[in-house]
Design a protein that fits this description.
Layout: E1 5-9, H1 13-25, E2 33-37, H2 72-82, H3 89-101, H4 114-136, E3 139-144, E4 147-153, H5 161-171, E5 177-180, E6 184-189, E7 194-199, H6 213-223, H7 231-237, H8 252-276, H9 281-285, H10 296-303, H11 311-314, E8 329-333, H12 338-343, H13 350-361, E9 370-373, E10 380-383, E11 386-389, H14 394-411, E12 415-419, H15 421-428, H16 434-437, E13 441-443, E14 449-453, H17 456-460, H18 466-480
Parallel strand pairs: 1-2, 4-5, 8-9, 8-12, 12-14
Antiparallel strand pairs: 3-4, 5-6, 6-7, 10-11, 13-14
Bound molecules: iron/sulfur cluster.
Length: 502
C-alpha cells in the first residue's frame, strides 16, 4: 500500500511551489500526494490512492532545499494553470513537475502527452478569461468628495484579477478606479500610484448604472449593423455569461429580432439606388485629375466638380482642406462627416470639436495647421432620417488620393498627422494597423514624417467615463509630438506655386 503525504498550502502558486519543492526533496510520488488547499474546501485530490497506511515525512519546506531544475517554460505555464479554478490543477502540476525531474525533461515538447495537453487546455482557458475581462469590464462613475471614482463589477471564471491588474493600471493610470469581483478586488489610486487588493465583494457593492449608460445604449443601437450580424460568431466572442454586466446586452435580443427585416429593406433600397446610377466617365477612370498647380484655391475649385468615384452622388458638396499654405503640420482625417458635408469645411462637427480640444490640451494651435481628409466627399448610408457614416473602400481612397497628394505637394509640411487607418493608408500608400503603429513617426511623402494616431471619432464612440478619458489623454500625448517639429519646412516649391499664403 502506498504511503500518503498530505501537502498543506495556502492556495497560492508561490506557496504551492514551496511545498512542491519540499515534496520533491522528500521523494513524494504524485500518487502519494494529497494537496490540501487552505483557500478552498478540503478536497481529497489523490482520488486514485486508497486510504493511507502511513504518512510520508516531508522535508521542512522552509529550509532551503535545492530547487529542482525545470524549463522556464514550465514555470510560466504553471503560473497560468494555477489561475484556473479546477482543483485538479494542483496534482496535475505536481505530476508534470515530477515527470520533468524524473527522466522526462522534454515532456512539454510532446503535445500529444495527456498531462501536457491538460496543462495547455487549462492555460488557454485562463488566457481567454483574461482577454474577456479586458473586453467586458464596464466602469460606472461614482461622485465622491475626492473626485470621480470609477467602479466596475466583473465575474471572472478563474483567478485572474492579479494577472490583469497591471493592464488596467497602465490603461487608466490617471484615474481612480476599482474592479470588484466575487473572489478578489483590485483598486488603483493615481495619487499613491499603487495597486491594492482586497477580498471579494458582492454585486450590490458596485453601482448598478450611471448617467452615461442611456447614451451608450442609444449609440450602440445606432451602430448595430443588421447586415453584419453573425450570431454564432457574436456568441463565441461575447458569451452570455458576461451579458448580465454589459449595459448594451439588454438591447441585443430586440436588435437581432429586427435584423432580418432591416436587411431586406436595405437590399431593396440599394437595388433602387444602383439602378438609378449610371457611371460617369470620371467614375469609369477611377482616379481624380487635379490641375498641375500649387495654388490651393485653384485645387479646391477643381475638386468641387470631381466625379472620379461615386461618392459625389450622395454628398452635398466637396469638402476640401483648409488652413495656411505655409503650415508645417498637415492633419489628415478619413472623410467629412454629416456636419462637414452640410457646412463644406473639414473637422467642424463633433469629431472636429474633440480634435480642437485635444490640440488645445497638447498646446497646439489648430489655426497654424492645415486640416484635410483622405476622401473629400461624405460617404454615408441612411438609417431612418439620419445619415450614418460609412467607411470609404480602397477604390474610393485611391480615386481621391491625387487631391491629397496635390495638397501635400503644395504645402510641403514637415509632419503629416494621420488620424486613423484610412488617412494612414492614403498618405503612405499602403494599409497598416493603427493599434500597432500608433505614436510612431514613419517616413511619409515629400520628405515629411507621418505620425500615426487614432481618428477623434473613435474616441466619440467610447461610452463616457474612465475609458474615454484615458483614451483622450493618449490622443493628446500623441499630438504633443507635433511640438517637436521644427518650424522650418523644406524649401523646395512646385513650379507655379503662389506666394506662401492663402
Ligand atoms: S471622393 Fe474624392 S475622388 Fe470621389 S468624387 Fe469626391 S473628390 Fe472625387
Amino acid at each position: 500500500m502506498p504511503a500518503s503525504a498530505p501537502l498543506h498550502f495556502d492556495g497560492s502558486f508561490a506557496d504551492w511551489k514551496r511545498v512542491a519543492r519540499a515534496a520533491l526533496a522528500s521523494g513524494v510520488a504524485p500518487q502519494q500526494a494529497h494537496w490540501r488547499d487552505a483557500g478552498a474546501a478540503q478536497i481529497e485530490l489523490a482520488l486514485d490512492a486508497p486510504a493511507p497506511e502511513r504518512i510520508v515525512p516531508l522535508a521542512d519546506p522552509d529550509l532551503a532545499a535545492p530547487s529542482p531544475r525545470v524549463p522556464r517554460a514550465f514555470l510560466d505555464l504553471a503560473e497560468d494553470v494555477a489561475r484556473h479554478r479546477d482543483p485538479a490543477r494542483w496534482p496535475l502540476l505536481y505530476r508534470a513537475l515530477w515527470r520533468l525531474t524524473h527522466g522526462e525533461p522534454h515532456l512539454l515538447a510532446n503535445p500529444a502527452d495527456v498531462d501536457t495537453h491538460a496543462l495547455h487546455t487549462l492555460a488557454k482557458a485562463v488566457h481567454r478569461d483574461i482577454h474577456k475581462m479586458r473586453a467586458f469590464v464596464r466602469f460606472r462613475e461614482r461622485a465622491t468628495e475626492a473626485g470621480p471614482w470609477f467602479v466596475a463589477w466583473f465575474e471572472p471564471q478563474h483567478h485572474i484579477v492579479e494577472a490583469n491588474a497591471p493592464f488596467f493600471r497602465d490603461r487608466f493610470a490617471s484615474l481612480r478606479w476599482s474592479i470588484l469581483t466575487p473572489g478578489r478586488c483590485v483598486h488603483w489610486d493615481p495619487d499613491s500610484r499603487s495597486l491594492r487588493f482586497t477580498p471579494g465583494a458582492s454585486r450590490a457593492d458596485a453601482p448598478a448604472d450611471d448617467a452615461a449608460e442611456d447614451l451608450w445604449r442609444t449609440y450602440y443601437a445606432s451602430i448595430f449593423n443588421p447586415a453584419r450580424v453573425k450570431v454564432d460568431a457574436m456568441l463565441a466572442e461575447m458569451p452570455r455569461h458576461y451579458w448580465k454586466n454589459l449595459p448594451e446586452a439588454a438591447l441585443i435580443p430586440r436588435l437581432l429580432a429586427e435584423a432580418a427585416p432591416r436587411v431586406q429593406r436595405m437590399v431593396a433600397r440599394s437595388a433602387e439606388q444602383s439602378a438609378a446610377a449610371a457611371p460617369t466617365p470620371g467614375e469609369l477612370e477611377g482616379r481624380a485629375r487635379p490641375p498641375a498647380t500649387g495654388d490651393l484655391a485653384i485645387l479646391a475649385e477643381a475638386a468641387a466638380s470631381c466625379h472620379a468615384c461615386p461618392l459625389w452622388r450622395a454628398a452635398t458638396c466637396t469638402v476640401f482642406g483648409e488652413g495656411p499654405r505655409e503650415a508645417c503640420i498637415v492633419l489628415v482625417g478619413e472623410q467629412p462627416g454629416d456636419h462637414e458635408d452640410r457646412v463644406g469645411k473639414p473637422f467642424v462637427g463633433p469629431a472636429g470639436r474633440l480634435l480642437d480640444r485635444a490640440l488645445a490640451a497638447a498646446g497646439i494651435e489648430r489655426s497654424a495647421c492645415y486640416v484635410t481628409n483622405a476622401v473629400k466627399h461624405f460617404k454615408w448610408e441612411p438609417r431612418g432620417k439620419r445619415r450614418l457614416h460609412a467607411t470609404p473602400n480602397a477604390r474610393e481612397i485611391a480615386a481621391c488620393r491625387p487631391w491629397l497628394e496635390a495638397e501635400l505637394a503644395a504645402i510641403r509640411p514637415g509632419l503629416i498627422v494621420c488620424l486613423g487607418a484610412t488617412a494612414a493608408q492614403s498618405v503612405l500608400g499602403h494599409a497598416l494597423r493603427v493599434t500597432e503603429e500608433r505614436g510612431k513617426k514613419l517616413p511619409g511623402p515629400f520628405g515629411a514624417s507621418a505620425l500615426i494616431t487614432v481618428h477623434p471619432s473613435a474616441l466619440l464612440r467610447l461610452p463616457a467615463g474612465i475609458e474615454a478619458e484615458a483614451e483622450f489623454q493618449r490622443f493628446v500625448a500623441d499630438l504633443r509630438q507635433i511640438r517637436e517639429v521644427p518650424d522650418a519646412r523644406p524649401s523646395e516649391q512646385l513650379p507655379g506655386s503662389p506666394p506662401a499664403s492663402t
